[in-house]
Amino acid sequence: MGSQHTPEILDYRNENGHGWSFYINDGVLRRVGTTPEDDMEMIRNVQKLELRDDDVMIAAYPKCGTHWLWEIVNMLRAGNSEYNKKMKEIAMLEMPKFERIDELPSPRVLNSHLYFRHLPEKLVEKRIKTIFIVRNPKDVSVSYFNHANGSKKLFRFDGRYSEFLDLFLEGKVPGGSYADYLKDWWQVKQDNPDLPILTMFYENMKEDPVKHIKSVADFIGESVTDELCQEIAEACTFKKLRAADAEVKEDFADPFEIWKESHKGVYRKGEVGDWRNWITVAQNKRFDDVIDRKFEGTGIVFTYE
């Protein structure tokens, strides 16, 4: 890699020209969107962000349920099951206009796909409550492909799923390697015992949403009734969240500016096990081999059904 000011550009597009270019920032593969310099400046600004004592942080790799969890946490803090009129992106640290985060009223529910070392430096010092959500990598790969393939501009990927899977298993996708990201957070938990981190598994949330919504409420210090948790679970089904995006969100951009016409937006299926409709037997064996190798010794166990 070159110097801090002129990072090397890594072109990881495949032979069909599908994929992205990256640079490396502090060991993390970062997609080249605008310029590496702009991206590095954004990260420095995020690291310097002033956090408030009552902030909650949601951290996740892309397509692991960040939108879903963000709505749930906002409802718990509001004490009702009404949708927040803002989009999750208003409180997403790596968004271009993230300085607007300072204008958000407390208590804020922040969210990010950034690695821990790129998050605000005050996170540990202020012991900011952090919720980390994990999803099985096979469903992540399918959801991520549909997101990238349905995107007109942001993550635009015009290849087939099999091409995306090759890049995903090699960690050559926006956000870098899923295995590296999860292992990094597991290490963060060990290295920072004073940082309150609640780890949630997407599949458990799907199986028993009321129980896990109650766990989130306990973690962030909100006293709630079982009835409210039930109402929130029902309001936060994927079908209802998709409708809320179109009907409730004030700053929901014209979906056709963001998505191809065949695509329904950020909420697709949200099911556990949809990967079976996409992944061939041969691909699945290869996937298992990569997972076994990359997660060996971590104790991380995924649920695929």
Mean pLDDT: 90
| Proportion of residues in helical segments | 40-55%
> Number of DSSP strands?
7
Q: Catalogue the unreliable spans.
A: none
CATH class: Alpha Beta
Total of helices? 12
Strand content: 5-15%
User: Total domains, how many?
Assistant: 1
The CATH architecture name reads: 3-Layer(aba) Sandwich
Terminal CA distance reads 41 Å
Give, in order, the helices and strands: EEEHEHEHEHHHEHHHHHH
Largest sheet: 4 strands, parallel
If you compute it from the alpha carbons, what radius of gyration comes out, rounded to the nearest whole angstrom? 19 Å
Tell me about this structure.
- By secondary structure, this protein is of the alpha/beta class.
- It has a single domain, classed as Rossmann fold, CATH 3.40.50.300.
- Helix content is 40%, strand content 10%.
- It contains twelve helices and seven strands.
- The protein has helices at 36-47, 66-78, 122-125, 137-150, 161-169, 178-191, 202-207, 209-220, 226-235, 238-247, 255-258, 281-294; strands spanning 10-11, 21-25, 28-31, 56-59, 109-112, 129-134, 197-201.
- The strands form two sheets. The protein has a four-stranded parallel sheet, with helices on both faces. The protein has a three-stranded antiparallel sheet with strand order 1-2-3, with helices on one face.
- A hairpin with a 2-residue loop joins strand 2 and strand 3 (28-31).
- Helix 4 (137-150) packs across helix 5 (161-169) and helix 8 (209-220) packs across helix 9 (226-235).
- The radius of gyration is 19 Å and the shape is globular.
- The termini are far apart.
- The mean pLDDT is 90.
